[in-house]
Design a protein that fits this description.
mainly alpha, 16 helices
Length: about 290
């Protein structure tokens, strides 16, 4: 990368707020497989804003409960440990990405619709391949955050990024190829820098870094990363939102078979993706992004 780009990028990321103490503590305690709802209650109850978000989420149309939940412990039990962790994480990440910044080259609504689309498609894949319900939110968050590295590139290098998008379209190649050629770094690498700064989970970290190259993911997280890869390509192919990639890449058969899904399955869930996007939009609304 040219020094001028590296200096500006590092300066931007250095000025991004760190994750709050509450969010960092939630990530820490949820790494313990023995964590309980009471353990999380002790941490979350110290943050009134997050308490409100948890209750807003559990009572949203996304979960469709008939009776209103007012107890934080009950909400934690009903949502599950991973959902709470991911709500806290997405609240912090999306909130920090929004502060002091604006979309210039990319359309903000198109970008987030694509991100949500990849998230819900990844989660539908997780359900299809038998991932336990309490782990499917990892697939949603991995899909939701896979392109966060594009945001600093879009904000800092407006002219260069527009050129990268146009040349990728003209040359019928992946956007990250032109990112590397013109700016000297890809959105995957920038996302990696952000993930390191915020000490995100290994699962989310690998989705951000390897969503264009699932074969580089760890064996433990391969199906997660490959699911995000499939979902990303599928959403690009079907124009679910827009995050700069006009080049549509066919999903390799061996990736589909390695994960355990087929093209027919993807076609079957197409109708439900739009509905799921609208339902999942509440996740961003609760997180404070929209």
């Amino acid at each position: 990368m040219e020094n001028k780009y590296l200096v500006r990028l590092n300066r931007y990321i250095d000025t991004m707020p760190s994750l709050s103490i509450t969010v960092s503590k939630i990530i820490e305690v949820t790494r313990n497989p023995q964590v309980t709802a009471k353990d999380l209650n002790k941490v979350i109850s110290l943050d009134p804003v997050l308490v409100g978000k948890v209750l807003k989420l559990v009572n949203s149309a996304y979960y469709g409960l008939s009776n209103k939940v007012t107890s934080l412990v009950t909400a934690i039990i009903m949502l599950g440990i991973n959902t709470i962790k991911n709500l806290a994480l997405s609240t912090a990440v999306l909130g920090n990405m929004r502060k002091g910044s604006s979309f210039r080259t990319l359309n903000v609504d198109g970008f987030w619709r694509h991100s949500i689309g990849v998230g819900v498609t990844s989660k539908l894949i997780a359900a299809k391949i038998g991932i336990p319900a309490n782990r499917r939110e990892e697939f949603f968050i991995g899909g939701l955050l896979h392109d966060i590295g594009k945001i600093p590139l879009n904000i800092i290098f407006e002219e260069e990024y527009l050129k990268a998008i146009r040349e990728a379209d003209m040359k019928k190649t992946d956007l990250l190829v032109m990112e590397q050629s013109i700016i000297g770094i890809t959105h995957c690498e920038v996302g990696n820098m952000i993930a390191e700064k915020w000490r995100l989970t290994d699962e989310t970290f690998e989705c951000i870094l390897y969503h264009h190259d699932p074969n580089s993911a760890s064996e433990k997280n391969f199906k997660l990363v490959a699911s995000v890869y499939i979902a990303n390509n599928y959403c690009n192919m079907n124009e679910v939102g827009f995050s700069g990639d006009r080049y549509v890449k066919k999903i390799e058969d061996y990736i589909l078979s390695s994960v355990g899904v087929t093209e027919e399955f993807l076609d079957e869930i197409f109708e439900s993706i739009s509905a799921e996007i609208e339902k999942a939009s509440v996740f961003l609304q609760v997180s404070g992004q929209k």
